[in-house]
Amino acid sequence: MTWQPELDELRRRQELAERMGGPEKIKRQRDAGRLTVRERIAVLLDEGSFHEIGALAGTAGYDESGELASFIPANFVTGTGRLDGRKVVVGGDDFTVRGGAADASIIGKQIYAEQLANELHLPIVRLVEGTGGGGSVKTLEQSGHTYVPVNPGWDYVVDNLSMVPVVAAGLGPVAGLGAARLCAAHLSILVEGTAQLFVAGPPVVSSGVGEHVDKEQLGGSRVHARNGAVDLIAASEVEAFTLIRRFLSYLPPSVFELPPVAANADPVSRRSAELLTAVPRDRRQPYRIRPILAAVFDTGSVMEVQRYGGSIVTALARLDGHPVGVVAGDPYVAGGCLTVEGAEAVTRLADLCSAFHLPVVTFTDQPGLLIGTRAEQRATIRHGVRAIAAVYQAGVPGAEIIVRRVFGVGGAGLTNRHRLTRRWAWPSADWGSLPVEGGIEAAYRADLEQADDPAALLAEIRARLDAVRNPMRTAERFGIEEIIDPRETRPLLCDWVRDAYAVLRGSPPGRPAFGLRP
Fold first, then answer.
1. Most buried of 5, 228, 389, 497, CB within 10 angstroms?
2. Which pLDDT tens digit goes with each residue over 156-192?
3. Hey, how many other C-beta atoms are within 10 angstroms of the C-beta on 263?
C-alpha cells in the first residue's frame, strides 16, 4: 500500500490549476497582446526556479459520490523563485479567471505573499492585472451580503516598504486595489499600449462623473508617463521584466543587508576628455546631463528610476561596482529649476537610498525652486520643502559634484551641507543667494538711472561681479573644499565610494528611522 492514489489526485489538481481560465480565456489574453500570469513568471524568473505556493486553492465542484467534478483555480499565483540567482517572492494576478477580481482565495494568497516577503526578508515582485480587490458588483449577489471595506494585507504592504525591495508592474488594465498595489512600491512600471492604471474603469467613470472615455484615454501610458503615478513606462512586458531584474540588482534583499558590490571591468582611473567641454562657458546655455553621468559612472550602469522628474534626473548607478543613488539637475527642462515633479523624484530617491543603505552622489546645477504664477498655484514650495526634508533625513554617505549653479532654497537643500559631504566643484561652478544676472538692475537701479551711459556702467558692474563670483574666491575662504579638473571626477568618486561602504559596513544596517511612504 502506498499513497500513490492521493499523489495522482494531487497532480491532477495541479494540472487543472495550470489550465487557469481555460483555452478560450487564455486565447483572449494572448490576442490582447498580454502574456498569461504563468508565462510572465516563467519569463521573469531564472529557468526552473519557481516554487509555487497554494496552487490547489480555488473553487471546486463535486459530484454525488464526492469526487472532484470541476475546479476553477484562484486567480492569484504566488511563490518563490530566483532572479539572477537571488531569491525573491513573486505574486501575479490571473486575468483569465474573473478578470483578476478577487475570489474566495485570492485575498488569502495575496496576504501570504506579502507576509512571506516581510518575515523572510525577501524582495517581492507584484505582477498586477485587474482589480485584485473586493471583486465586482456581481460578487455581492453571490455572497449574499456586503461588508465594510478593508485593504487586505496592507499592514504588510505598508511595512514592506521599510523592510524589503518592492517592485510592481502593471501588465493590463489595473483598477481599485490593484492600482493601489501597483503604486505601493519602490519601483512601479506600466506597459505601454496594453496596460492602464485608474482608480475606477471607464464604466464606473461614465456612471459616476459622466466622462465617456476608453481605457487608454483614462489611464494609459500617455496619461501616467509624466505625472508621477508610476515610475517607468516599458515598451513591452519583456522590457518590464528586464527593468525589474536590473533594479533589484542594485539593492540588498532587505534593509538588514548592504547593497551587493558587483565585479567591475571599467577602470577607476578612467578620465573622460569630453567632461572638459561638457559645460559651456556661456552660463545661459544649457547642456546635456546624461552624457556626463555616463562618463563618470561604471559603463552602462546608470538606470533612471523616476522618469517623470523632468528637471531632476534620479538614477541608480555603480562606482567601481558599488551601487549608489544619483541626483542630477537637467538644465534642458525648466532651466533646471526644482519643480513639483522633480521634488517628488528627489523625495522617492532619497527615501529609497535611506532604506537600503545606498550612498548618494549629487550632480548639482540647481538655480532654485521654480518661480512664477503656475509654480505658486501648484504649491511648489511645499513639494520642494518635502524633498529637502527627505534629503536631510537620509543619513547615508553623500558626495556632491557642483557642476554649475547653486542658488536659493532649492540649491541649498539638494544636499545636506550641514553634515560631512565630500564635495568637489568644477571650474564652471556659480553660486550665491540668487543669480547675479537676475539682480543687477534691481540692486544698482539708482546708479544706472543717474549714469550718463547706463549700458557702459552695467557692463562695468557685471565685470566686477564676475570677478567676485569666481569660485576661486570661495575656495580662498574654504567655502568650497576643492575645485577640480572635471576629468578627475570618476577617480575621486571611486575612491570616495570605498570609504562610504567602509562606513556602512561598520554600522550594522537595519530599518530606517522613519517609515517609507509610496
1. 497
2. 999 999 999 999 999 999 998 999 999 999 999 999 9
3. 5
Phi and psi at residue 406, to the nearest 5°: -140, 100
Q: Is residue 515 part of a domain?
A: no
Which residues are CB-neighbours of 134 under 8 A, at least 6 positions away?
101, 102, 147, 149, 176, 177
Q: DSSP letters of 396-440?
A: S-EEEEEEEEEEHHHHHHSS-TTS--EEEE-TT-EEESS-GGGTH
Domain hosting 460: range is: 434-469
Task: Give the rounded distance of the alpha carbon of 226 from its chain centre.
Answer: 13
* Amino acid occupying residue 13: R
Kind and range of the H or E run holding 60? strand 58-62
Q: Are residues 456 and 502 in the same domain?
A: no
Q: Which domain CATH number covers 357?
A: 3.90.226.10
356 and 453 inside one domain: no
| Residue 269 CA from chain centroid, whole number | 30
Backbone angles phi, psi at 241, to 5 degrees: -65, -35
260 Cβ contact list (under 8 Å, min separation 6): 249, 252, 323
pTM to 2 decimal places: 0.91
Task: Say whether pLDDT at 102 is over 70.
Answer: no
